[in-house]
Design brief:
- The chain is mostly helical and 170 residues long.
- It has one domain.
- It has helices at residues 2-16, 19-30, 45-57, 94-109, 116-131, 136-142, 146-155, 157-167, and strands at 61-65, 68-70, 73-75, 77-80, 85-89.
- It has a three-stranded mixed beta sheet with strand order 1-5-4. It has a two-stranded antiparallel sheet with strand order 2-3.
- A hairpin with a 2-residue loop joins β2 and β3.
Length: 170
């Protein structure tokens, strides 16, 4: 039953949503869930600084901190809506910072009525579109909550693309 629902959602995305989200949904369906590995490259230095500037322009403070935990688990980034602050792990290389900034930017663009898992799927989908760093690690993150991820990509694909466009200044 669960596999049938996932297959239906994936088929609906393939027909309904743009191809990059459809590929992410397909990867989410087949990849093993787990803590994502981040890039150790630094060639997206300027893109990361540019994205940080856009987030600051949207009224958010971006801070680089030594380590981040959320609910007792290590995290690469965290968005504090009350303080309008985004925290990024200072130990990350620039390419990873860029992807994490895009993810946290996705959070600030997500609709308020989404569940926690839907918020994460929305933000990770935005990060995949903005960072242009492949599908696998984004899918690994979304695979922890496959059904919510695929459903969010299907239902909110226009808002996901709009959010990515704002973050990319399109």
């Amino acid at each position: 039953m669960k596999a049938g629902v996932l297959a239906f959602l994936l088929a609906a995305i393939l027909v309904h949503a743009p191809w990059r989200l459809a590929v992410l949904a397909g990867e989410t369906l087949v990849v093993s869930p787990g803590f994502t590995r981040v890039s150790d490259a630094d060639d997206q230095y300027w893109q990361a600084l540019d994205l940080e500037g856009r987030l600051v322009g949207l009224g958010w403070e971006v801070s680089y901190v030594p380590s981040i935990e959320h609910n007792g688990q290590p995290a690469y980034g965290l968005t504090n809506f009350d303080a309008h602050t985004i925290w990024i792990d200072a130990a990350l290389h620039w390419n990873a910072r860029y992807a994490v900034l895009a993810h946290e930017g996705g959070h600030i663009m997500a609709r308020g009525w989404l569940t926690t898992h839907q918020h994460e799927a929305f933000a990770e989908s935005v990060a995949m579109l903005v960072a242009h760093d492949g599908f696998r690690e984004h899918a690994r993150y979304c695979a922890d909550f496959r059904i919510d991820s695929i459903l969010t990509m299907f239902v909110h694909w226009r808002a996901i693309y709009r959010a990515a466009g704002v973050l990319e200044d399109m």
